[in-house]
Write a structure and sequence with these properties.
This is ATP-NAD kinase. With about 290 residues, this protein is an alpha+beta fold. It has 2 domains: about 120 residues, Rossmann fold (3-Layer(aba) Sandwich), CATH 3.40.50; about 130 residues, Tumour Suppressor Smad4. It contains 7 helices and 17 strands. Strand 14 and strand 15 form a beta hairpin.
Amino acid sequence: MGEAVAGIVANPASERDIQGLRSALRVAGVGRVMVWADAGKIIGTVRRMVDAGASVLICLGNESMMRAAAAACGDVPLLMLPAGGADESTVAGLAAGLVATHQVDTDLVTNRATVLEVVTKARREIALTDVSVCSESRWDPASLTELYCTFAVPDGVGLSSIPGRLCPSPKSTVDGVAVSLGPVDETPYVVQAPIAPGDVRAVGVRGWSVLHAGVRVDLAAGGGSIALDGQPHFVLKPGESAFVELKPDGPWCVDVRAVMAEATRTGLLLGRKPTAALPAPRLADAPFPG
């Protein structure tokens, strides 16, 4: 087997994070690290990295970059990180390196994500977390009418926090959530939700249901706008149609915590390989022995 190869696509302002990732990948045994520090041309770059033999890909950037990387990575494990967390990126780089070098079983430490695919007459795009429909051509959270989420957890931040308060749906399930929204003075439910960091507001909810994978849902978006992962993306003309579909064949995402737990269990991070099974973890009662 040849040298392990990893690919990094990152925001150019994330130099410190990139250096942390490269250093950690080398420690894990990765022989070659390809880096693209530019917010543009992500899809083509990721495809070239896959063709060049990358066995793990890391995307360090915003939601737009992550969507592009997810659309292009195929079956190569993908680790997505927000920019600006040097400590987090160092641990993530170590985990990605252990995946790239096949020191951990990929089946144990990756999960296939679901994605939302939005199709109009002219475009086809994916969202990783949520698709929202606004009744106005200028997207405004106060005018949301529909929301579709791949998952919804009670402690989440973003639009998915709305169903997270009402009908939680963990990432481990294939199904998502569909929510009908409206003005707070016209709806039977009002949720206090952190729809963005530092922005907690009352949201009117008419109702919700399970969003099943593989089922196309027509969007009532004619004359309005559609946002992907909270970012305005489409403006539709009156009468123009669009639909959303939850698809179960998204990217294989690296679970950093699972990688590090498996590495600890098997002794991969010890200076000397154990000759016998590691003892069961145990906390000593205070005072600790000298």
